[in-house]
Amino acid sequence: MPNIVLSRIDERLIHGQVGVQWVGFAGANLVLVANDEVAEDPVQQNLMEMVLAEGIAVRFWTLQKVIDNIHRAADRQKILLVCKTPADFLTLVKGGVPVNRINVGNMHYANGKQQIAKTVSVDAGDI
Hints:
Largest sheet: 5 strands, parallel
Pfam families: PTSIIB_sorb
Subcellular location: Cytoplasm
Number of domains: 1
Domain PTS EIIB type-4: 1-127
GO molecular function, one term: kinase activity
Order of helices and strands: EHEHHEHEHEEE
Radius of gyration: 14 Å
GO cellular component, one term: cytoplasm
Strand order of the largest sheet: 3-2-4-1-5
CATH class: Alpha Beta
């Protein structure tokens, strides 16, 4: 079973708060970004890699690649799994990824969404 130490929803994926605070808090040594768009975008990947401290590994995988490969993770890998949306996590869970709890971070306001916390806005599709 993969050693997922933290699962987080964050529309910005990896940024300063995730790269420093959450990685440190969770004791993660690998950040796994599960996002179809970013998995194919080296520019976004490079920007996100710059935020992480030396020694923290990062992978940018599609949702399907996470589903297909997460169970091959070594025990020594302490994984911070980050997705942009609740729907992405639902896809992963339905695909067999063992997610027990989700830390909800930045879900920005948009038309049709209701703000339920300072940095979290949701609509019916998110709940």
